[in-house]
Amino acid sequence: MIYITQLIYVIPGQEETFEQFEAVAIPLIAKYNGRLLFRVRPGIEAYVEPSVERPYEIHLVEFDSDMDFENFKRDDARKAFLHLKEQSIRASTLIHGRKL
Question: Hey, what CATH topology would domain 2-97 get?
């Protein structure tokens, strides 16, 4: 089991474009033995002591294996909509982990 945490920084004014990409990408997770555990859009009051820029969204996804995650990233339907991701996301940080 692997866990992918992603901090997503959306370009101001591109939130709807980001949602269009997510509408395609999120349902594909299950096709590759993955589960979206949560998708959070925390308000400023949720941060106790930030030392980095606050992300627009935080995702936590689990996949059965690294290969499942790689196959998800290579999915043709997802790749067809990557232009929406590129248009709407300024930056993202992906953290790859395992349960201890």
Answer: Alpha-Beta Plaits (3.30.70)
